[in-house]
User: What shape does this take?
Amino acid sequence: MSKIAVVFWSGTGNTEAMANAIVEGIKTTDVEVDLIQVEDFKADDIEGYDGVIFGCPAMGDEVLEEDSFEPFFAEAEAKLNGVPVALFGSYGWGGGKWMEDWVERTKNAGAKLFSDGLIAENAPDDGVLEECKQLGRDFAKSL
Assistant: This one.
């Protein structure tokens, strides 16, 4: 049976709500899923999963969260070659440049990127939460 890690950082709860919806979508399939805060996940843990879905909001000048997520992801990039990956997160300003940059980094790391990133402006509404569930279902079925 395939297994997915949904690894995220959330400051206000918006990205966490998206992560929970993604997990809900995965659970409608026959794929196992672990929901993990980034502080509890190490780059080497990637090897124990068939796919990883990363979530992080935009911070500061449209960058990944700098204290926990960015240092983790910088290390994880070396482990992503050939790994199925999806990205998601929320933002409160700007136009999503942080996600464009993150998608590019992930592609450059050699990951099998599932989509170009799912984003929500501020708190995810019902429509975005449904997109999150669909992302979870579709990603799980792709493995």
About this structure: The mean pLDDT is 96. The helical segments are 14-26, 69-76, 97-108, 126-142.
